[in-house]
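Progress against Task 2.4 (sequence-to-structure conversion) is shown through the following example record, which the project officer requested during the mid-term review.
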Amino acid sequence: MLIRRGRLRDALTQLEKIGPELESDPELLELQGGVLASLRDTKGAVQSYRKALAIAPREESYILLASVLAESGEQGEARKLLGELIEKSPDTVFGRYY
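Structure tokens generated for the chain above:
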């Protein structure tokens, strides 16, 4: 709800209050990464997405991390991640699209 209303800093504060559960839940980490990316905190977004990817190498985490890396000028790293995704999941549509 806070994110939809554009209250990104408040949303980030609420996510941080979750505590240890945040650090072990890839979906919450992806949400945190999205909020940080929207706040133009690329470094923080990359950290959140990398944590999510380490916990559960889901297609969404690969795509989100690659997108932030590409937007921040790290196209080589983004391509490498998408290559890993395609190797891991050859049928991925999103990996090939990006």
